[in-house]
Amino acid sequence: MADEPHKGGLFENCKIAFVQSKALTSVAISQYSSLIRENGGEILEPDRRGKIPIPGATHIISDTIDFDQYTEALAFMIPVVRHEWINLSIARHRLAQVRPFSPDPRMIFSSVILTCADIPEMDKESIAGAIIALGGVESKDLTRQTTHICALSLDHPKCVEARKKNLKCKIVLPHWFDDCFRLGKRIDEGPYLLPDPEILRKAPEEAVKIPSSQGLDGAVSVVPQGPYNTDGGEKLVVFEQRKVMLSRDLPITPQLRKTITDKIIRGGGQVVDDVDDCDWFVCQFRDGPQYIRASQQGKEVGNLAWLYHLIVYNEYTSPMRRLLHYPIPRDGLPGFKGMRITISNYGGDARIYLENLIKAAGAEYTKSMKSDNTHLITARLHSEKCEAAKDWNIEIVNHLWIEESYAACEPLPLTNPKYQHFPPRTNLGEVVGQTFLNPVVLRQRYFPGGEETMNEEAKMKHKVNERAQKNALKVGLDRDFNVMQESSPAGQSTKKTRRSAPTTGAFSTPAKGRHVSDGKENETPSTMFSSASRSAKAQALSKLHDLSADIALYEKEKKRTKDGIFGGKRAADQIEKERVVENTASPASDKRPREDVDDMQDKRPAKRAKTSLPEADMRICLTGYKRWAGDKSSEEADRKKLRALGIQIVQDTVPFTHLAAPSMIRTQKFLVALAKGPDVISSDFVTACIEKGKRPNVDDYRLRDKAGEEKFGITIETAVARARANRGRLLFKMPIYCTEKIPNGPQAFEAIAKANGAIFMLYRGRPTIKPTTPEEDGGAPPEPVYLLSGPSEAEKQLWPRFEEMAIKGHMEPRIVVADWLLDVCMRQELFWDPRYLWKNREKK
């Protein structure tokens, strides 16, 4: 078992859960977990479903908000912070504030630690207040953690000291904060950096390089165009334990539908035909009974572009994160009909995205501009179109107007100052695609009510979403940034030229009652640990007390999945190839009458013809079973008996619902199957079915193995829960090498490692790791790289070369016995103990 938390320490009373992602790997989680335990904290184990027990957590460590329990964490006001929070807490020997470490991109200053230099006191207060409201921290003193100094010149002692000590902080003009506040987006600091800020050196009309747009990958169109480049060696795991329904209104051919279905199944998911059974519903339009029911029940609803994005990037993201990942309105949005909109100064994916967004909203996009155009969307105020628009009295706005109007499901007033704000040396294409959809607005407009038809799960999700939305407003998410601007003198000086010397007075005094720093670095105001926030959290938890009971009751009585489907490999390019070939045959769904599509949605696929055998609703992967040893005829007869009871015995390479074994055994089949997170039962269940001729209660046959649990240091329930949380990514992208001469051969170890997401390679003595210096690796400590080996002399000769290769690649070589891999996969936890090293074994 994992070590018990130490009594006392920095993280005493902290119950911390981790969310694994590509940015926060299992290797990092293992290292941080050890640090937390050493400092008195507790690492929360996942529950039976592999979920974080949200009500019991004090902190959730995640580098992204793209995990399915983020809304629930927000509802319970549980802080979600990036892993840097742990580093800073340990460095300062006290718990750091959580607000600066939010992974939510809407907290645009969440990574900013600011100190002000020669800024007037009133402006300093205004900047600090706005920074804190949007996730940053203001400190009186300059420290090594400081990321930004707000200054008018380099003469202030803070600037002098920062340059003298080569601190990695940026010295920016206050104009940068002003422009960020006006837009509600964080733009690049480059043009505002001292000593030679571009906004003072160049004229606004001089050319600005068109930037690449962050956040638009796979989200520029409702129907993905591809083709996509994919890493064929990466295991597809995003669909693990998910049930997906593909709507009949998707613009795909039957053959492409089958291809997509195969990818989902091979990726560990299941394709279903009933809305009530699915977790994710994929459709084209925001209408029809299936869309409404799926939305009211709290299912994840996205479109084909979203589904392709999941396949290509192999990581979950909410369809609410990107405007064109959510089903579009069939006839556009109210108020956009009759608008003729053109675009200027946007390039690449940003331009294509805005074109598609205009069309999805129901307006007409025009490539060129004429006097009958109604709107010009531009990233800067300088172009021929902008000059013509002024002459023709055409409305000029930035892209935020069309994005936020689309999210609001109606045209927003053009008088909002943020839509007419254009920083002089910035192309706003760099902040395209950062607007989220609002679930409250979508519900009110497209699927209101429905409480009377909701099941308990849907009702509970609805309560959680409502509370999460209220708490989001409390912590500054989805706030109207213009409240700050309209009360500010800055709102009255938008036409002031930036070529003049920097002036102050662009910020208003903060509202009375705002927490103000007393100058102590470690006591920055407005954090989750402030008394006001603690009070708000207590109030939220109090209101959710009955909700916690609902959660517990629901989990107790929730119907278990009957057809868990597992296995898979990475592939999206095959989908694209078939789509390109069959593009001309793709149905024009958007041109069909609405009632025809609704009828199509209501149709269920034809049921399979009835057979004499019942449907196999229980598929068992069986290992270590002795009854059939050497008796093929008996095995065949018994399999027929089981099949008559709706039970099918399958291999670990195909979908299965249960893993059956006599005990916790370290066989290849057991460990490969365990990585899928199935229900684990005793093989006595199979014997009982055969001998009794009927299916007993499977819950009575859950695997219990006290000796095995003591031997491996883990209960089977905990191992399964961890496997469900890991979703096949326990060893995700970890390089694991193996010698060819290892006892029992490398094939079994390869299957086990790959089932858990590792990159498995045979090592024959040739270098395969690129030499890297610590500086090239960003100064990060070396990560471990493993070589599974036996004790033969031929294998020992490879050890020095492996160590040399790893060290040159800035990695820590670990030459281990195979037991390390088997124990890690049995416990479904990446841990380390030097006793697995061969050099320590040989000393004994």
TrEMBL record:
Region (Disordered): 484-534, 576-612
Polar residues composition bias: residue spans: 484-507, 524-534
Coiled coil: none
GO biological process: DNA double-strand break attachment to nuclear envelope; double-strand break repair
GO cellular component, one term: nucleus
SMART domains cross-referenced by the UniProt entry: BRCT (SM00292)
InterPro entries: BRCT_dom, BRCT_dom_sf, CellCycle_DNARepair_Reg
Compositionally biased intervals (Basic and acidic residues): 589-604
Domain named BRCT: residues: 6-103, 104-194, 336-419, 617-703
A Pfam family of this chain: PTCB-BRCT
PANTHER family: REGULATOR OF TY1 TRANSPOSITION PROTEIN 107 (PTHR47667)
Protein name, UniProt field: BRCT domain-containing protein
Biological source species: Chaetomium thermophilum (strain DSM 1495 / CBS 144.50 / IMI 039719)
